[in-house]
Amino acid sequence: MALHGDSSGEFDIKSPADKFFTSFADDISSTFHIISKEKRTVTLSLSGNLVSDSYKTFKATITVTPAEDEGNGSRVVWTVEFEKIRHDIEDPMWIIDILINYLKETDENLNI
Fold first, then answer.
1. What is the pTM of this model?
2. Locate the Bet v I/Major latex protein domain: which residues (predicted)?
């Protein structure tokens, strides 16, 4: 297994892009590298015992764009880059799953 890796994906949400971006950007307590409210993009680094015990770096970039059909809803595009401290460590899919679930739950909570 390589020490460096990345993963990316996208999914649709029901919330308007500005409302969703403001909600999750205000809620995240990780270290921000870049916040671009104009582009609705956040780049952050995750750290802490569970992350730093296995990964030298873990960086996530999240961008929210309005739906192309001009209706309600938006598209979330995410990219994760990481560097493991050893070759025998698994790729951080569990962290990515938590991130995606958090973003989807944020959307659900905004549409209750």
1. 0.85
2. 2-111
